[in-house]
Amino acid sequence: MVGRTGGLCLNAGGYSPGMDELIDLEERGWRALATEGAAERFYHEVLDDEPLMLLPGGLRIADREEMVRLMSRTPWEAYRLSEPTVTRPSNDVGVVDYVAHAVREGGAYAALVSSHYVRRGDGWRLYFHQQTPR
């Protein structure tokens, strides 16, 4: 697991930095989630204008600012991402899925994660994100 000090964590399944820009973007997101104050900046930059998140406990969030607030709460103490894959239905759409293991105050967490990105004129934007507990 990678702690708040950072470092590469997507190292299972033959991953290496630069393998895919969308996997790199996901790793940057988790690094921001594990760094006090970084998540708000990161998600303001990467979220699409009308994103959707489906999270454990039946939580459905379709409000961009609510997502930023939620992602900016208690940082993860450590995380590990494994088995990453990327599917590109078109040049401007990408789907990343992987397994996430993370720890923070309150306990351990494991989920199958899927993030869907859309390429906009100024880069990739996170349009849809879902976490299914394992």
UniProtKB/TrEMBL annotation:
Listed InterPro entries: DUF4440, NTF2-like_dom_sf
Highest taxon, organism lineage: Bacteria
Coiled-coil residues: none
Domain DUF4440 intervals: 23-126
Classification via Pfam families: DUF4440 (PF14534)
Record Gene3D superfamilies: 3.10.450.50
Full protein name: DUF4440 domain-containing protein
Source organism of this protein record: Actinorhabdospora filicis
